[in-house]
Amino acid sequence: MIHRISKQQVKEAVQEAYDKVKGMTGGANANYIPYLANIDPNLFGISVALPDGEVIEAGDTEYAFGIESVSKVPTALLVMKQYGANELLSKIGADATGLPFNSIFAILLENDHPSTPLVNAGAIAADSMVKPIGNSFGKWKAITSFLEELCGSPLNLINELYKSESETNFNNRSIAWLLKNYGRIYDDVEMSLDLYTRQCSMGVTAKQLSIAGATIACDGRNPVTGKQVFPAGLTPQIVSLIATVGFYEHTGDWLFTSGIPAKTGVGGGIVGVLPGVMGIAAFAPPLDDAGNSVKAQAAIKYIVNKLGLNIFSDKHATIETVDRKQTEQAMA
Ligand code: GLN
Q1: Residue 238: what pLDDT?
Q2: Residue to probe by mutation, ligand 1, list 116, 119, 120, most atoms within 8 Å of CB
Q3: Of 128, 160, 328, 332, which residue is 20 to 30 A from 117 by alpha carbon distance?
């Protein structure tokens, strides 16, 4: 069954979610990365990007925060774009670890496999695979250009965050060298770790994240710029990765209660992808004990529930999108 949703309903749901969740308390900023501990905990924004390029926003959607683990999604996509999905599967894997994002135990348990590019181990391995191999500058350019194409606008590195993470990422250093020991780092170890640390420190807005989500939802075509950013056909693979491990050890709870594949970051951002329907992002710094934004989770759940967008439901939603060019012509 297909049920149609109007844009007006989406706008209302976004505003309602904002109003209801804004005053919510609970959670705390990430404290293991000093820069994140000091971000204003009251920042809060929600953004929905639709396949016709319209973006519906509420709150602080233009504030650039640390993308953190959400950056694992674009890098995994870039590796699939450069090598094909099968190579990512064989060199990294697509299994949930059921353990925290920075688990060393997970690597020891599955020592022939970093499991998935959406946990720290697999993301560092993915960075090591990015071409051009051996060329730190070229790899960084490839990673950031791809991220900008997904988001449809320029992004900046948050230098202070990068410095803060580089000075405190001892656990990630252990992960990188342990992976090297198991033959799962495909380029220089320190370079791969540094690329991972830097990509986590990119600033991104909720609006940009929602557009990146919509680009994935539209099988690689950025609905705002119109550019085909990755080869059509990769959406099922990347969404399957997001669905299986987007919330780490709480992914099952998340899917059970929200019905939408989504990826979190300790910067407070979450991006959800509903293939063919929308990209949805929310941002608020206070996190629960698994490192997921309390308000962003609540906002996305509210909207998905209100609009009946649960992907496991027998009802599939389509949003009535209007061809903006046609409307503009009609109004001229
Ligand atoms: N840069 C952070 C880390 O490696 C990202 C973690 C996250 O967002 N879950 O610890």
Answers
A1: 98
A2: 120
A3: 160
Closest CA to 93 of 241, 265, 249, 262: 241
Predicted pLDDT of residue 332: 55
Counting from 1 in the atom list of ligand 1, the atom nearest the Cα of 123 is 4
Name the pLDDT band for 223 (thresholds 50, 70, 90). very high
pLDDT number for residue 244: 96
Query: Does 102 contact ligand 1 (Cβ within 6 A)?
Result: yes
Strand order in the sheet with 262-264: 55-59, 45-49, 278-283, 269-274, 262-264
C-beta of 292 in contact with ligand 1 (< 6 A): no
Residue with tokens 């710094």: 285
> Is the pTM value of this prediction over 0.85?
yes
Per-residue DSSP letter, 293: B
Peptide bond into 132 cis (omega under 30): yes
Q: Indicate the average pLDDT of the chain.
A: 94
Q: Which fold has domain 2-331?
A: Beta-lactamase (3.40.710)
> What is the arithmetic mean of pLDDT over 129-152?
98
pLDDT at 144 over 80: yes
Provide the b/e sequence for 272-296 (b: ≥16 CB within 10 Å). bbbbebbbbbbbbbbbeebbbbbbb
Cα–Cα distance, 126 to 192 (Å, whole number): 8
- In short, whether 266's Cβ falls inside 6 Å of ligand 1 is yes
Q: How far apart are the C-alpha atoms of 211 and 48, rounded to whole Å?
A: 8
For ligand 1, whether the C-beta of 95 sits within 6 Å is: no
Contact between 59 and 77 (Cβ < 8 Å): no
Task: Give the separation between CA 14 and CA 112, rounded to whole angstroms.
Answer: 44
